[in-house]
Design brief:
Elements (H helix, E strand, L loop, with lengths): L16 H14 L6 E7 L12 H14 L5 E4 L6 H12 L3 E4 L12 H15 L5 E5 L10 H13 L3 E2 L8 H14 L6 H26 L4 E7 L2 H16 L3 E3 L1 H5 L17 H8 L12 H9 L4
Parallel strand pairs: 1-2, 1-6, 1-7, 2-3, 3-4, 4-5
Helix pairs in contact: 2-8, 7-8, 7-10
The chain binds zinc ion.
């Protein structure tokens, strides 16, 4: 079991009424099992070739509308591979809506399978293409959350980012929204207009279960619940159900926060000493601490297949 109870660390008793009141207030604020904070962040897309369920522009508008309705500021870590003006316009809409844009490389290579020099060139191509976009932020997210299979690559790219005045955009809660979305899209391709609520409900259960798992890792590795950063993607399932995702977390006692606010948690400046490097920052810290039973990769479609196979196809 990775989850464990938070130890009661009330501190030494003080002979002071005011301090006692403060202590009670602190205890009331810290004690609930609920009270976790989580920010939504998005990778990839807009995928201009995929119009199943919703056309690319409609997906983009739906995600932005639901973020705006919830008054949430998020970040889209986008790849820049071409100069498609229609795609650029959708990316630009994020900044115009008060959201941020981050660098996710030009062609989405894995640093575990790419040489450092090639990876740096890919990063620079995206930086060049994105830096004039409204809302651009010097923040980088590794494709596939893979941060290098050797110490030379891992440390080399960390130094490279420092030299470019970039920060990373780690995640604390990893999940497989991309797979749930692909399976939902397969159903809609087969049966346009089909009922999708079973997919929505399975998706919400998956996100909550993963968030609770990583919150347990946080308490195990750090002794506290960090300001979480959830990895989502610019895809159909979030275009359709982002409002439900937000509502589900709120109903479970979680507070939705802005991504920049979450990234201020000091956990995201930590640099775990693991190889291959990457995955959720909490997974990597747990790995570094010798926590047993961690699966690798931490998230994958293979873990979700049976759940989705059981739904109407
Ligand atoms: Zn990606």
């Amino acid at each position: 079991m990775l989850r464990r109870a938070v130890p009661v660390t009330a501190g030494a008793p003080r002979r002071c009424f005011v301090a006692a009141l403060a202590l009670i207030a602190t205890t009331l604020w810290v004690a609930p099992a609920h009270g976790q904070r989580i920010a939504l962040t998005f990778d990839d897309g807009p995928d201009m070739a995929n119009a199943i369920g919703l056309a690319p522009a409609a997906r983009n508008a739906a995600i932005l509308r639901q973020l705006n309705d919830a008054q949430l500021r998020s970040i889209l870590f986008v790849t820049r591979t071409d100069a498609d003006p229609n795609r650029n316009e959708l990316i630009r809409q994020w900044g115009q809506a008060g959201q941020q844009i981050g660098n996710h490389t030009a062609t989405h290579p894995s640093l575990n399978e790419t040489g450092l020099a090639d990876f740096e060139r890919d990063f620079l191509a995206a930086d060049q293409a994105l830096r004039e976009m409204p809302g651009f932020s010097r923040r980088f997210r590794f494709p596939y959350l893979k941060e290098g299979d050797t110490a030379a690559k891992r440390n080399g790219f960390r130094a490279f980012l420092d030299a470019k005045s970039y920060k990373t955009g780690p995640v604390s809660v990893d999940a497989s929204d991309w797979y749930y979305s692909a399976r939902l899209a397969a159903r809609l391709k087969q049966h346009p207009g089909a009922d999708t609520l079973a997919y929505r409900d399975a998706y919400l259960r998956h996100l909550l279960e993963r968030a609770q798992y990583y919150d347990g890792l946080s308490r195990t590795a750090l002794g506290r619940s960090v300001a979480h950063v959830l990895l989502l993607h610019h895809n159909l399932i979030n275009a359709l159900f982002l409002k439900d995702v937000i509502g589900m977390f709120e109903a479970k006692g979680w507070t939705l926060i802005d991504s920049e606010s979450a990234f201020r948690d000091p956990v995201y400046a930590m640099r775990p000493d693991t190889l291959p490097a990457g995955e959720s920052i909490l997974w990597a810290l747990a790995k570094q601490n010798g926590v047993a039973g961690l699966r690798y990769p931490a998230e994958d479609d293979r873990y979700e297949k049976a759940i989705l196979d059981a739904l109407p196809q």
